Amino acid sequence: AQKITQTQPGMFVQEKEAVTLDCTYDTSDPSYGLFWYKQPSSGEMIFLIYQGSYDQQNATEGRYSLNFQKARKSANLVISASQLGDSAMYFCAMRVPFSGGYNKLIFGAGTRLAVHP
Amino acid sequence: GAVVSQHPSWVICKSGTSVKIECRSLDFQATTMFWYRQFPKQSLMLMATSNEGSKATYEQGVEKDKFLINHASLTLSTLTVTSAHPEDSSFYICSAKALLVHSTDTQYFGPGTRLTVL
Q1: Which one in A68, A94, A107, B93 has a CA-CA gap of 20 to 30 Å to B44?
Q2: Least confident segment among B41-45, B53-57, B68-72, B76-80
Q3: Which residues of B touch A (CB under 8 A)?
Q4: Which H or E run includes A17?
């Protein structure tokens, strides 16, 4: 079964420190994509980073990097130099195929990150 | 780029009325739009997927006649909650996927609509 697991309901980090948010996935499809989204208290979902299953290198976008370990089926998000504005809910998602040749996203339960000054 | 708008951002209505929520991709054409529902402190639940010019595909357990979806153009999809009841109160979020040749299928989300049914 296709599944995304985020085992950390909440995380705390000191401002300017790095933090890792865990995400593991399960799929039998050899082609898949993994996404991280940020949801601040205002509610909008902000796309952060993408990793394709065939990508040779770990994805990076500014202060965000994805620690992709294919054999372990993990796609952890690393935020470097945390800022107060990083406090939000973070969702890991996986692209999965469904009927008609289309794809959809399945989401993990999310991790709430609190950055302390 | 990749901006998705949603209107209204919040709505309060009486039980039994219908509410329409619009989702627009502002700077790109969207082959596919998605509608999600999110309860407080929970993850997103996909309700339905809509492709321009064709019928929406609903997830199991989502009532088609209750949640009407119309995807009239490559930039607009609407969700109508018909005969709304208090249990329909929730945060509804749409997303859009760009029409690109080499696409990662990244979905860009709207800001969401908070629906409260009295």
Answers
A1: A68
A2: B53-57
A3: 2, 32, 34, 42-44, 46, 49, 51, 57, 91, 93, 95, 104-112, 114
A4: none
